[in-house]
Write a structure and sequence with these properties.
2 domains, Thrombin, subunit H, 2 helices, three-stranded antiparallel beta sheet, alpha+beta, six-stranded antiparallel beta barrel, 147 residues, 10 strands, 20% helix
């Protein structure tokens, strides 16, 4: 008989319950939880694209600017996911700097940490200029053609 645990996941202000089964020492989401996770991905405002580049993240805390490095995992018009060398807290406002495959070859954006799970974080971009929106759109088009 599998051991079941229930996880509460908060995504886009909705609470979703997921059941994780542990069988033969391996943890995996139940069929219902897998379907719920797939539905949440389909409900995103913007598509996500696989995007693996080095990223620099700076956060201002207690009068000091702290910088950490990491790798992105996905990019969309409204945000990105990354694994970092340091921990961030949900709600912190950060500066992101990462290379893109188009001119100007590096983009600098402000973002808020939407979730943080250890060293893995999700960021939502804040107040993008029209030029930044256009650049992100063009990058997403390029990434669509690469996948």
């Amino acid at each position: 008989m599998p051991l079941r645990t229930t996880l509460a996941l908060k995504h886009n202000r909705k609470l979703t319950r997921c059941t994780r089964e542990i069988r033969n020492g391996e943890a995996r989401l139940s069929v219902h939880s897998q379907a719920a996770a797939k539905l949440q991905r389909q409900m995103r405002r913007f598509s996500r694209y696989r995007f693996d580049v080095r990223i620099q993240v700076s956060v201002f805390r207690e009068g000091l600017t702290t910088t950490c490095w990491g790798r992105t995992s996905e990019l969309g018009m409204d945000g990105l996911g990354a694994t970092l060398s340091g921990e961030l807290q949900s709600g912190e406002v950060v500066s992101l700097e990462f290379p893109i495959p188009l001119q100007p070859h590096v983009i600098k954006l402000r973002a808020v940490v939407r979730y943080s799970d250890g060293l893995r974080c999700g960021f939502e971009f804040l107040v993008l200029t029209e030029e930044q929106k256009l650049t992100l759109h063009q990058v997403c088009v390029v990434l669509t053609n690469l996948c």
